[in-house]
Amino acid sequence: MANVVSEGAAVSGTRTAPERAEAALDTLTAAPATPDRLRRVLEQALVLAGAAFVGVYTPGDDPSQLLLAESAGLPRTLYGLRDGYPATGGSPVAETHRTGHPVRLGPAELADCPEARRTPSPDFSVAVLPLGPAGAGCLLAVTERPGGFGPDDRACLELIARAVAVPVPAALAGDGGELPPDAFSLAMDSGRVEVGDDILRLFGLGRDAFDGRVETLLGRTVPEDLPALMSVVEADHMSIGDRELEFRILQPSGPPTWLRLRGRLLPGGEGRAARLVGTVADASTLRSDVTDVARVQRLAAALATAGTVKDVGKAVVAALRGPLQADRIALAELENDRLVVTVLDPPGPEAWPELWRSEWRTEWPDAPVRAMPTLAAALREGRARIWPAGSPLEPALAEVGPGGLAVLPLPAGGRMAGACLIGWDRPHDFGADERALLTACAGLTGQALLRAHAFDAEHELVGMLQRTLLPRRLPRLPGAVAVARYLPTTAGLEVGGDWYDVIPLADHHVALVIGDVQGHNAGAATLMGQMRTALRAYAAEGHAPDVVVAHANRLLLEMETDLFATCTYVDVDIEQGTAWVVRAGHLQPVLRHPDGTTEIVRAEGGPPLGVLGQADFPMTPLRLLPGTVIALTTDGLVESPDADIDVGMDRFAAELAAADPAHLGLAADALLTGARRADDVALLLMRYDGMAVRPLRESWTVWRVPEAVRHARRFTRRTLRGWDVPQDTLDTALLVVSELVTNALVHTDGQVRLDMSLINHRLRLAVADSSPRSPVKPPSIGWEATGGRGILLVEAVSAAWGTLPVSGGKQVWADLALAERPPRGSAPDG
């Protein structure tokens, strides 16, 4: 290893970090003033001082407020920082501004701050430096390095604070001066924009033809580039600081033209809206001026939005491989003693060493660290290492970068999260400041990996919670098929309140339920689970649809929650092909008729659940023909910020008409294609096919008269003879009816009803009464007992028996199996 050249040797004799900062700042401040000079000054803190965020706070139009004038690095919201602070308040920003003295806070002090927030790193430190005498504002820097800012880091920050030039050119600030030809100023509240003549020329507009609306300019953008551009010009997605991106505009003929936008958001003051100011230029005429600082800034911006480990790897590859002209990059995580690779570029096995190929596991390889002792040493030291071409390394590393290899340990949260390997095939000339670039990138990547793991873990927890609260599978239905889909929102990690359910009921009824609880948090998810359980319980009790929803409304009111819920409940009678719809503030059902036409059901509705105690929930009848599809959804599928919900419902109905009802799962997937995912989406479809064999049914109201049992037996005999039930089964049925009716008359009050049904050689006899108490089977009967034998007799002669809750009471039922008889006219066996 004597010939191994570390990065320290490669840059020995070079200037210290403060000396490099001083030279860079002298160059920046000596150049003519540009709109992005302040940002470029602040970016020096990212590379040379190890800052993760740096910002400048200065007095605004109202001297009592300190406003964030410019920032660089990760989003301020990760550290609980505001856009502004009261100048007389107790914040570190206000204290440094008033006194002119620096303030440094470590993790312990920050934990006691009222605005302290949990961050992925336990080593989260802040330094606040004055921008001159008291009252001139301050520079705030954040680092996640263990131990905070070191002496060299603080020296760099002091140089940067002295070099900060806060005032914005009056023309760009929109203070009434004339805009430069390539500059613009956009009012974020109204969308009115002032632009220079060069910008109008680039967009192909004359001064007289331009109406001052930003939409006019956006309309000339290539559609694929519009979302990225909108993310810059929409205030809801921005924080104070620099914005830079390239986009294309359409031309009357020929290919689109690339433009580069550079700007920053200026905070609004009292009575003044925030504004986006900057420049737009023809990207094809701009020289390549991507500095190391700019690379770090772009990587920081990309990592700030990287949600998963894969996203982190893609951001690192995009930020480093091309600019450094590297031939391969590997990002690997350290798990125990193995290096588990999460991103390889190029991805093919043939581009990587033999050891890596032998350890390939499906998509990526994982290799033992002990097989690469040089890498293991670099991870222990925790410092970036650079080996030029010809360095004697073990084959597993030498083949990664025969022309030069850089290994970046990725520290995060006081431990080593992994490593990034960058290799070149041809001899690479490592610049003196390249170590600073790589070190800064390693720190940002390590912290991003830690955040991504937290994101992945929370995302998995959220998904598990959602899967637990929703039905694991839908039941099989006689004469119908149901499918459901659920898509969680991609706007965040919090679980939503959308739910669906399919509830089989007695007599071949089924309840279709879909609903949405207000909010996207654990409280909404918990309430969603409670409401789904409550509706299922009320439905199983046999209540009418309007009573089920009314009971759920009363329950939600009694829970004393601030949340409300919407719901659509459809009770379908599969035997008769009818349904009843009840709505509680939710979307209408949509029907797809057998001829392919669709109909948005105009069902009268009641208020959302949990709003009014005395609320009516009217029922709307439906008639279903075989082949009809009932579609229920939540507003996440049909509502969007740029279209009315009625437009979304019409679109949903049109897409349902185009779907194939024969493959209901594929139809559901097609309906979800293109969902905006800004909100949860639940979708429930049921195709009504009709029953191949409809049951025979009859009912008899049992009057409380002395001859009640005899009348019930007579009705049973007459009905079963009409159904051609064999005599032996008829005798058994008369015994069961006698016992069940007698029990109901003796042990309950109120109305008693006898129901009989016959389907598929199975006869069901059921007696309903007004008592919720189920009959109790006695454990034993003595010779002297005068009662209690009825249920034992029913159990002895029945294939099965049981009880079901019905509205206000119960139903005791018994099933008798009928022997299948040969068709009339056929000869018996034997």
TrEMBL record:
Protein's UniProt keywords contain Transmembrane helix: no
One of the Pfam families matching this protein, by short name: SpoIIE
Record-listed E.C. numbers: 3.1.3.16
Function according to Swiss-Prot or TrEMBL: Primarily acts as an independent SigF regulator that is sensitive to the osmosensory signal, mediating the cross talk of PknD with the SigF regulon. Possesses both phosphatase and kinase activities. The kinase domain functions as a classic anti-sigma factor-like kinase to phosphorylate the anti-anti-sigma factor domain at the canonical regulatory site, and the phosphatase domain antagonizes this activity.
InterPro entries from the UniProt entry: Bact_Sigma-Reg, GAF, GAF-like_dom_sf, HATPase_C_sf, HATPase_dom, PAS, PAS-assoc_C, PAS-like_dom_sf
Designated name of the protein: protein-serine/threonine phosphatase
PROSITE patterns xrefs: PAC
Family annotation (Gene3D superfamilies): 3.30.450.40, Histidine kinase-like ATPase, C-terminal domain, PAS domain, PPM-type phosphatase domain
CDD domains registered for this protein in UniProt: HATPase_RsbW-like, PAS
Organism superkingdom: Bacteria
Domain PAC: from-to ranges: 243-295
Keyword Membrane recorded: no
GO molecular function, one term: metal ion binding
Catalysed transformations (reactions): O-phospho-L-seryl-[protein] + H2O = L-seryl-[protein] + phosphate
Record-linked SMART domains: GAF, PP2C_SIG
Keywords: ATP-binding, Hydrolase, Kinase, Magnesium, Manganese, Metal-binding, Nucleotide-binding, Phosphoprotein, Protein phosphatase, Transferase
